[in-house]
Queue: 3 jobs
Job 1
Amino acid sequence: MKTIAVLAYPGCQVLDVTGPLQAFATANQFLGSNGYEITITAPDTEVIKTNSGISLQVDQNFNALRPVDTLLIAGGSGVFDQLNNELLVRRIQLQNDHCRRLGSVCTGAFLLAATGLLEGLRAVTHWRYCKQLATMHPKIQVEENALFIRDQGIYSSAGVTAGIDLALSMITEDHSHSVAMKVAQELVMYVHRPGGQSQFSTLLQAQTNGSSLRGLLDYIQNHPTADLTTEALAERQSVSPRHLSRLFKQKLGQSPAAFVEEVRLEQARGKLERSDIGFQQIAVQSGFSSADQLRRAFTRKFGISPRQYRERFANTVNPGASV
């Protein structure tokens, strides 16, 4: 049985601790004695108050922690108070000498970076802090858009829920993709996101950043089967296609065509989950020209085909066409 420990401290983010641990705990439902022992560890305290005010019971004092299989360092606003804790940094270095995997969740990357173990490696943290991490540690190759990264046995993940994606990736390493998918489904995660996928949600970003385009964005999301070419959208917005492209790039960081595809993929994903209609019908109703076009776009975005997605996440399954 592999021991998974999450290092917590005052002011850590509660989901950085409990999210990954819950993924490993849920895996135990399918693994039995071949599963995981999970533990929360912290230096010199029995109870941790997180930055949300929620308190967590500590299982083991980090200063006396036996070697574990995997040690993850939680993030949170309190991490910056720990960077000058030389004893804590040294203990993390010592754990790295014995554990199979060492990693960070969210801003836990700053504490991991303080050990020097990330120098010369690729790493990621919460998008809001990527530039700060790169400035403080110029020898680290900080990748702003990744969800999680593994480089030479050292792991790091982006903000909050990306820690669950990291845990699912580790479960896949330890056991199988099938077990990780069962965990994702049990936790009602719509898909196990690959590490290279951007930590930004296009549709969420559209709601927060696209105010000057709000009417047009609402139209796209409500009419996925309409003519949504850049030219047609520009006419609807009463601007030139070139100006519309500049607006989308400025507000959303992508082209009109890319945003339209994101919306259509979300439409298709919902139909795959909630209906048993055929793939060709789903494609047409979502704005794609054919089931094959849907398959190519869906696989490029999510890393699995519509058929595979339906088999894992739908309530009802229609064998349908082989897409």
Job 2
Amino acid sequence: MDTLTLQIMNTELYIAMPKGVHFRWKEKAEKWLHYVAKEWSRFQSNNELSQLNDLKIGETLRISSLLYDCLVQANQYYQRSNGLFSPYLKRQLEQHGYNQSFPFDSAKSKAFQNKPLIANQPFQFLGDEQVMKVAQQEIDLGGFAKGYAIEKLANWLEQEVSPDFGLIDGGGDMKMWSSGEKTWTIGVADAWDNDKEISSIKMKTGAIATSNRVYRSWMQGTMKKHHLLNGQTGEIADTEVLQASVVTSSLCDAEVGAKLCFLMDGDELQQWFENNCQQSARFIVKEGQAANWRMTGEK
């Protein structure tokens, strides 16, 4: 196989394609991923996302068509989950001490005079790539931007470069395709030990996303914090779930679904997947409990 490995978006990203593809795909792939890492990260100043976050209430900004599309998709998941998944938690994450890139062990909270408010629909999407800020919240696309970027790149590689097969692995968020002969075996890592595999699943075409509250965690004073917040309250998700892996056709669906595993109870979660994914599987690791696969849709 022909491969490309990049350290980008705070992860190791790996692409595998068939050998002998007569197309210079690596250069275009790198350019796209570096663009997303630079322009859509909340940790970069003077980028496209920071211009949006710096808007005053009532101001509008025309942004790039791809960032607009990513934000509109994230906002649709926000609406469909009644705000449990939210791309509007930058200020809340900073208040909890998550104001630097991982890895770090301890953090101070950013000083806010008052607790950051949670508003319903803080940005409006006006069409023609124009966005209006309507409340004092700020955008953090986080893992959703990575999933969106991988999915866009995978769709382009499959359609324009190699329909036979290919795979992109962005630190556990994966998109793969196969025209029929190639079958991928995807491992699920232990929540506490990334080098240890606890399960696996075989597939030809689809996506898998994993969220874990063990690795992206830190101490803030005497409080243990992690990066998974309840979008309705801005508070750290209080859950027994340590790790969730979701398999479905869309990486964006899988990315959001994995986060919701920390925020919904079992029945609510089952309903979400039945309503939003034609076919899916999830593997949820809870404290002190054995994990197993749960399916929705056609077997």
Job 3
Amino acid sequence: MPQAKSLPAWINAPLPSDNSKFMYGMAIAKDRESAIKAALSDMVAKLGTTIESSYESNEEVRGGFVNSSVKNQIKSDVSKISINNYEVIKSHKVSYREFAVMLRSDKVKFIKGLKESLETQKREITQKYDSLKDLDALSRYNTKKELSLKSSELLSNVLIVSELDKSFDKKGNLNFIEIKQKEFLKEAKSLKFSVKGDAKSSKFIKSIKNYLAQNGFNVVDTKDAIEIKIKTSDNINRSSFIKIAVITLDIGVYDKNQRIGGKSKILKERYNGSKESVYKNASIHLEQDIKSQGINEVIGINLVENH
């Protein structure tokens, strides 16, 4: 009876500790390719544990970014990291359905790649900010919101690099993220809407104002606001058996007299002899359309809404 081959000692031995030059990963899977993927995942998982622990204990970081969603974002971002600079330093076919590998990754090249990616993203964000001055208020708001979110996504990379390279300017990079978030909050605070119209538009004005206010936007009656102007007309068809009222909202959206949006919105209601009833039902249906289709589709603007 043939004796079972003994396993190489490295398979059951503790994995070498990561050092200034290399990171290590080891796994056993059904074949060599699967084992390599699992070993790379092992490397990333160890990295993630280290980063999460560093985040939780680091007051400098947590001061501006402490909440469960940030922790979840870090975990998600770390799991997506791709480690390309690696070599298989040990491998062994354990059995016909098991293969073991040990990997080693060049830490210096890995850190360099993360730094280059970080700087590229920061440069793109900065360039986009520099192009905002000539945009209307709505476009500035949308773009700063987008860039604030993109800046927040840099946090994981900043924490990873700072953990792996103690000479990295963590404070400066965290300040970059925080400044972009504060700039968006300032822009959001300054974004105001004024909704006006003729006498027939009163119920529709109220519907739009309510929606904007309920979604966290400032609704005012001052001149420094984005103006949503509504002009309403109606046409009642009395010739058919079922009388139909067609209400047309001519909506224009302006920033400092520059038209930046708007559209014509048509609402059809059954006419029962009361215009008051027609307008009441039409305002209810407008509210329903805004909730189901979104404010952008209904009044013809491009607003990144709060969620």
